[in-house]
Amino acid sequence: MKRCFMQAAAATAAAALAIPALAAEVLPGATVAERALNGAKEYIEKHGLENPKLTMLLSSLYRNSMPDFTREWTELTGVEIENVPLGYTDIPAKVMAEATAKTGVYDIFNDFPYSMPDAVGAGVVVPLDEYAERGQPDFSGTAPGLRFQQYYQGSLYNMVLDGDHIILVLRKDLVENPAVIEDYRAKFGKAPGCPETMAEWEEMAAYFNTGEGETRWGMTFDKPLYGAVAYRSINFSYRHFPAYLGGLMFDADMNPTINTPNGVRAIKQFASIVRYMPPDVQGWGTPQIYPFWRTGNAFSAMSFPSIVGNANSSPDSVVKGKQLACTIPKVDVGGGEMVSRAPQAAGTGYMVSRYGKHPELAYYFIQWFTSESVGDRAIAHPKGFWDPFRTSNLTNEAITARFGRQFLDTTMENSKNAVSLLLLEGNYEYFNILDKHLASVMNANITAAEAAALIEKGWNDVTEDIGRDYQVAAWRSGVESGIYLDKFE
Amino acid sequence: MAGSRQPAAAGAAPPSRGRPPPGRRLAAWLSQERVFRLIPFIAVEAVFILVIIIPFILTIYISLLRWRANRPFEQANFSGFLNYGRVLGKDEFWMALGRTFYFAGAAVILELLIGFVLAYLLHRHFRGRRLYITIFLAPMMVVPVVVGYNFSMIYVDSGPLNEILAPFLEPFGIDPRIRWLSHPLAAQWAIILADVWQWTSLTFLIFLSGFAALPQQLVDAARVLGASPSQIFWRVHLPLLKPAIIIAVVIRSMEALKMFDPVVLLTFGGPGISTQTIAYYLWQEVWVFNKYSYGAAASILLLIFFAVFIFLGIWLLVRQRESVRRVDV
């Protein structure tokens, strides 16, 4: 008996000693980028690869900036990366086609974080946890709403280098104009500035909305000055709506929360401000909104944060140096509780294909590229569309020079309220249902209450079609991780 | 052992004296009349089976499954006619189908009328005729993406179209800033007009060929008998052009029912779903929402609907030809 006990004890001790040895060995290197480089070199040596090549399905927004980094990676490791640029609206379909075709033609997929659930469900991307255990990426300095959007159902699938959470920008030259201040103060009892609430933003939009040929504050407006401009078209409305809802879209059992007083309030508020926007706004995407903002014919814009850098760097911009960045205004979600939410409206991340030739090697490129030392350079890249999102960006001189201190401080403050868009399988269908009914409200075809009921029904149909139990598990996991900031009551 | 090798060596006769090599035998076999005449038939059938039959059967098979592409195909399960029921019970499907017929109907009528008038004006020879024909045929050759982009610029709120319309609308108190791409009704007509601009060229071409093929002696005879130009048009030109008209209707209807490019390029189906055609609806269900089985079922149903519609057109065409042939006889 004693002998048995001794044997068991020895086996337990041996097993305990063996556990650290079995655990993944962390790669050598003082920084995240160094570890990724060493990992890549080790992988190439171990597998005896000669002239290895990876292929990345790249969002075409980055066709002029990403090659600078893939070239650098090739010089450092010998791994060539071929970029295949494609419009971001087409990338999800390509990813899903690859899930069925399994060609292995792509090693890396570059797309929005919310493309991840469908890709994971289809099994076309691999979890990165095992590689990350060795490479030890550093996600500290990133707000929870942005950090946890890299995970789905508890596993790391996507590494994000982009703080594309929406922001509000005002015309600084107008809010600092003495004549405007005097008039505004007389009317509202305070000087104009960043609005505290969405209701106040709409109030400001109404105040600044000026017709063609009108003379105000000693200026004559040859063209109309619209009080606001923001995304209100199909494929864009859903990216902004969470800022108005200010809470979770579903309860713990995936019952939609849209058909509630708060949901109806959010729809009304989302639609109401449209009257101070350009009449065509429901057909506008970024190619229309950015140039319009640059013409100076709007007082405010709620947009992707890159609108600020774009208006500062475009030669045709009349608002260069005249922009005041603001955090997303708060909404009253009921009972006087005021909440600010800045949805990560786009933002690009990088996933590894299951069918690629070298998933581990692909991972090391992603870790290297999204690391602080390389990623910060990417954010500062003059031809890039990557936006600041982590604390290291605050101290980076090139990033400060590109975006300006005021914007940088504001977007970092805003990132504390950053929330992910719906990270669930079938999310594009949920989004579409929301968008088309919001459009119906904006066109006064249906009321906000009717839209809420229709959205609720549509969302429930999608949930049932995909499988309620499955969706509930994914939803709860996401909420618990903190990507939406809000928790179940 | 040597004895055993001897018969083999004797048997190894030179190829020219015994059976020809396999390649030559195959060539000889293929060149036989009974085989050779089957080769084109087999090749065509093979292509037909590979390109049409197999994908078609696969589409039917997928339509009977319960499968979204966000799950591996291996997890798909048989669901019978569930997807067909869902498609038929979906309001959006019927609305998109109805809208498609409305767009196609409006666009094809306008294309026929304008194409016919242009062809009528240009069917006689005059100086500069070729230049006009070239100009009127040009839109058809422009890439649809370019057409979509150009029209998106033309339709901008403060764009050239509204600038042109302003002097005509303002006297009647109508706001000249028409929201071509964001007002539901205006957006529908924006798409129809873009389609008309591009495809009137085709109907023009068909009618121009029709006019060129008109038997001049019938027109001359009518003129000798004292028919007025109007009578010649209504009693001679138009009846003889009926086959061309039906060809134009069938060809353009087939294309217009698949209207997709202007919708994607101008409105993305919006505002709301007011410009969503059936082709756009299907694309979205399959490639955006990953509902492959649902999309397959909808495609099969559409095939049936459109086949009925197109067969009706072809039946009219055949009937018309037969009546013309009877008159000729």
Keywords:
heterodimer, A: 489 residues, alpha/beta, D-Maltodextrin-Binding Protein, domain 2, 2 domains, four-stranded mixed β-sheet, 17 strands, globular, disordered N terminus, B: 329 residues, mainly alpha, MetI-like fold, two-stranded antiparallel sheet, 2 strands
How is the secondary structure organized here?
The complex is a heterodimer of chains A (489) and B (329).
Chain A: H1 2-22, H2 32-46, E1 53-59, H3 66-77, E2 80-86, H4 91-101, E3 108-111, H5 116-122, H6 129-135, H7 144-147, E4 151-152, E5 155-156, E6 159-160, E7 167-171, H8 172-175, H9 178-188, H10 198-208, E8 215-216, E9 219-220, E10 229-230, H11 237-245, H12 261-272, H13 286-295, E11 300-303, H14 306-313, E12 323-326, E13 331-332, E14 338-339, E15 342-343, E16 349-352, H15 359-370, H16 372-380, H17 391-394, H18 397-403, H19 405-415, E17 418-419, H20 427-442, H21 448-466, H22 468-481
Parallel strand pairs in A: 1-2, 1-3, 10-11, 15-17
Antiparallel strand pairs in A: 3-16, 4-5, 6-16, 7-11, 7-12, 8-9, 13-14
Helix pairs in contact in A: 2-15, 12-20, 12-21, 16-18, 18-19, 20-21
Chain B: H1 2-11, H2 22-30, H3 33-36, H4 39-63, E1 65-66, E2 77-78, H5 82-88, H6 91-122, H7 129-141, H8 144-154, H9 160-169, H10 184-212, H11 216-224, H12 229-240, H13 242-256, H14 261-267, H15 278-288, H16 292-328
Antiparallel strand pairs in B: 1-2
What do these coordinates show?
- The complex is a heterodimer of chains A (489) and B (329).
- Chain A has a five-stranded mixed β-sheet, with helices on both faces. In chain A, strands 10-11-7-12 form a four-stranded mixed β-sheet.
- Helices cover 48% and strands 11% of the residues of chain A.
- Chain A has two domains: 26-160 and 349-385, Periplasmic binding protein-like II (D-Maltodextrin-Binding Protein, domain 2, 3-Layer(aba) Sandwich), CATH 3.40.190.10; 167-344 and 422-481, Periplasmic binding protein-like II (D-Maltodextrin-Binding Protein, domain 2), CATH 3.40.190.
- Chain A is globular.
- Chain A has 489 residues and is α/β, with parallel strands linked by helices.
- Chain A is built from 22 helices and 17 strands.
- By secondary structure, chain B is mainly alpha-helical.
- Chain B has one domain (86-328): Orthogonal Bundle (MetI-like fold), CATH 1.10.3720.
- Helix content of chain B is 73%, strand content 1%.
- Chain B has 16 helices and two strands.
- In chain B, helix 7 (129-141) packs across helix 10 (184-212) and helix 13 (242-256) packs antiparallel against helix 16 (292-328).
- The longest helix of chain B has 37 residues, at 292-328.
- The radius of gyration of chain B is 30 Å and the shape is globular.
- Classes of the chains: A alpha/beta (489), B mainly alpha (329).
- The A-B interface holds A 92-93, 96, 99-100, 117-119, 121-123, 233-235, 278-283, 425-426, 428-429, 432, 435-437, 439-440, 442-443, 445, 465-466 and B 68-73, 156-157, 177, 179-184, 187, 267-273, 284, 287-291.
